[in-house]
Amino acid sequence: MKKSSRLYVIGAGFAGRSLVGQIREKAVLGEVVAFLDDDPAKIGQNLDGIPVLGPIREVACLLRTKSGDEAIIAIPSAGLEYLRGLYRILKKAGFEKIRILPGIPQIIEGDARLVQTRSISVQDLLGRIPVDIALKQSLAYLRGRRVLVTGAGGSVGGELCRQLLSAGVHRLYLFGHGENSIYEIDRELRLLQEGGVGERTDLVPVIGEIKDGDYLKHVVGRLRAEVIFHAAAYKHVPIMEENAVAAIENNVLGTRNLLLAAGLHGTERLVHVSTDKAVDPVSVYGASKLICERLVLEAGFMAVRFGNVLGSRGSVVPLFQRQIEGGGPVTVTDPGMRRWFMTIPEACSLVLKSGGSGENGNLYLLDMGEPVPIRELAEKMIRFYGFEPERDIRIEYSGMRPGERLDERLWSRDEIPRKTEHPRILRLERKEASRIDLEALLARLEPVCRYDRQNPESFRNEALLRSILRDAIPELDLDAGRVPSKGEEVP
Description:
single chain; 22 strands
């Protein structure tokens, strides 16, 4: 943004006025020429020398926007339909640059910061109405604690870390195996802190593998982590079908390593991030997450299950975005495919809330609302970029991939959802104890994932792995979502 840029702040409330003060303080970002607002009580006022114009729909079309002019939406509590309409109004008015403050889950008690603004994206218009869950109060259980986030460089892990900046934790450990991703989240969090976001927190990047049990025991003990949020996992379903042993080695044995380390060193709380694909799984990835849930609960910690998150590296949104930017076509696997979606900030705020209000030994489920047809999602994204589906950008059906099914489920026949104190967090109660013999299962999986001189024929044997999983989980149907290639025998 150049100094000559003219800035229009949408929303003359506390957040908007706070941003104006910070823009003036920086002095090099541009000049705020007006507030735009729909509140009759504000329209016509002059706030700190800046006029408040409105209603937005009526005045936006009268603005003589120039190249470089920018609109900044500063209404964290804006409803989804209102935000969609606002976006259309601003685009029609000629604004090429539209920035937005994050929603309520990322704005702690109205503390809006300029460094948090970012270009509006399709994810902002595809979610649902945000719910204020008093995050600062919800995070009180973490104040002064040492908190470790595994998979901190990923979509969910990174957002957990952003929100944890406001928790008043003594030290935040950013654990991951990707040097670049940990570097990026560490750098981003430090910039947010410099911009006044959150409270003073010591940030400590930690590079390591959850597959390395000895290292985990060492590092968890040395860091003395009191609370752990476990978001590290291999997540891409079709890729994991092609690399089934790696999925079990990382997700299952890695989680077991973390649980052993946490138990050995007296970790008070461990919150495991799970997925709806763990319900009656039809993929190796889903089976791995089901086993992880059982391991976590048996170890006396808690798990939080939810569906897809918009914009994560494993979601369909980035793929559709690249296809649209490339002129199409947009590929949808099947016209009947549906998924549950929520935004990453909402999912993470509810995970953090669950970690405080929930109890060890329980499995929680986030209320995902209604499932969304993937074709409908594709159409909305195409329109967000200014095109018309089928006329400008074609939608093609590519067929279901290995490990996929048309509909995901949020709980199994053996689980009963119970209400909790929060309307979007449910507790899942099992009708009967798990029939999976975890100790025996891990003993059989170990030589498949790790070389054993006494049993070399088992090492990396995918057919054996699938057989072991079927034996341990009788209801498991790995062939239901698997699409074999011509002439292939599915083990």
